[in-house]
Design goal:
Elements: E1 2-6, H1 11-22, E2 26-33, H2 47-62, E3 66-70, H3 72-88, H4 95-114, E4 119-121, E5 126-132, E6 139-145, H5 162-166, E7 168-169, H6 177-187, H7 208-212, E8 221-225, H8 229-233, H9 240-243, E9 255-260, E10 283-289, E11 294-299, E12 307-314, E13 318-320, E14 332-338, E15 346-353, E16 356-366, E17 373-378, E18 381-387
Parallel strand pairs: 1-2, 1-4, 2-3, 4-7, 8-11
Antiparallel strand pairs: 5-6, 6-18, 8-9, 10-11, 12-16, 13-18, 14-15, 14-17, 15-16, 17-18
Helix pairs in contact: 1-2, 1-6, 3-4
């Protein structure tokens, strides 16, 4: 089988390529450049050049062909423009999930097919299962968590379709990170000691306000502190809809304690960058309002404004990895769920309604954020996901 490996210049994709060559596949390396602009980035202007040079050394070490493809135009259109649009709405997007759905397993996949590849492989810590469909000769593909739960990356793949999974391989999903490092060292791969990448996929670590000011204008607004007594004065009804609605604030809900340079530069749960000191405990962002350019904060990591029982996903934003597992309207199921990468799975009840999905957790969750993704699991299988509405 001819396999195109997305060789990133990191140890995980390098070992994925190593394993595929050892298994006797016809392997080709394909390096993507998806970003040129260094505005707001913290790694300098040659990060991708270093990664490409290392990826070429890995391909040479493994005696596999190396190809380079520039997908920066598509990446800006599909991922970065989406980021700007979401931040402008006062939401916090997850570009890595979009990158996997729109770039790695779509445009990049098509590029690999043009080179004669049958499938694409990446260095994700996840696995793919195959399931026989009842009363048919066909099967469906399930997305399974990686064996190393500390490195499991199934969450980042939560928007992949059946077609995408049918053309994907995750060669290291059954391994622990320590095994991957050991294999790289034993084989003498140039990436054996390279640190894992951080920050936005293909962009890297960024200074968010500087990065966003490419499109979003800075403007002075108020920082308003909400006291814990606010929630006692306005108790929340214990209905399904109420449990899944974010708190709503206005200027009169609290008191002004400072100013900022743009509400869309902040996200729920953020602690740094507020510029307000002299507190016994840190201040955290509990809400933003881009319409009034207001940032609402609360003191302490256990402030009631940071904690909620539920969230909602609009019907149009629901995604099921295997369509046959989709819930019907009025159906209720129990799943384990997470609202961010590497968050321990949380017990939750899912309520399917015509307008979307309501997810109520057994325990209150910290920092539920509109624009992020929630994913739900049945054991080791990631069943579905959706964009958090609020």
């Amino acid at each position: 089988m001819r396999v195109a490996v997305g060789l990133s210049g990191g140890v995980d994709s390098s070992v994925a390529a190593l394993l595929l060559t050892q298994q006797g596949h016809d392997v080709v390396a394909l390096f993507m450049q998806n970003w040129h602009d260094t505005t707001g980035t913290l790694h300098g202007d040659c990060g991708w050049k270093d990664d490409r040079a290392i990826a070429e050394l890995v391909a040479k070490k493994l005696h596999i062909p190396f190809h380079f493809v520039d997908l920066s135009v598509e990446y800006r259109q599909k991922v970065v423009d989406y980021m700007f649009a979401e931040y402008a709405r006062g939401r916090t997007p997850n570009p890595d999930i979009l990158c996997n759905r729109e770039i790695k397993f779509d445009i990049f996949l098509k590029t690999a097919m043009a080179l004669g590849a049958d499938v694409v492989a990446t260095g994700h810590y996840a696995r793919i299962g195959r399931n026989a469909l009842a009363d048919t000769a066909h099967s469906s593909f399930s997305l399974l968590s990686g064996v190393d739960q500390n490195k499991d990356q199934s969450y980042f793949l939560c928007q992949l379709s059946q077609e995408q999974l049918s053309q994907a391989l995750f060669p290291i999903g059954h391994l622990w990170k320590s095994d991957v490092r050991r294999m790289a060292v034993e084989t003498g791969l140039p990436t054996a000691d390279k640190k894992d990448s951080q920050g936005i996929c293909f962009v890297g670590k960024i200074d968010l306000p500087v990065f966003l000011q490419q499109k979003l204008v800075a403007a002075t607004g108020d920082i308003i502190e909400i006291a814990p007594s606010f929630y006692m004065q306005q108790p929340r009804r214990q209905t399904l809809e109420s449990l899944c609605e974010p708190y709503r604030y206005e200027a009169l809900s609290g008191r002004k304690i400072g100013e900022h340079r743009g509400a869309h530069f902040f996200t729920i749960g953020q602690r740094k960058g507020l510029g307000v000191g002299g507190r016994a405990e840190s201040l955290f962002v509990i809400a933003i309002d881009v319409a009034t350019n207001s940032v609402f904060v609360g003191e302490g990591q256990h402030h009631p404004g940071l904690l909620r029982r539920g969230l909602r996903v609009a019907d149009a934003d629901l995604h099921w990895i295997r369509p046959e597992t989709a819930m019907c309207p009025k159906e209720i199921r129990r799943y384990m769920a997470r609202i961010r990468y590497r968050q321990p799975l949380q017990a939750a009840t899912l309520y399917r309604k015509p307008e979307g999905m309501y997810i109520v957790f057994d325990d209150r969750q910290r920092g539920i954020t509109a624009g992020q993704f929630v994913a739900w699991y049945d054991g080791e299988e990631l069943v579905g996901s959706g964009v958090i509405e609020g």
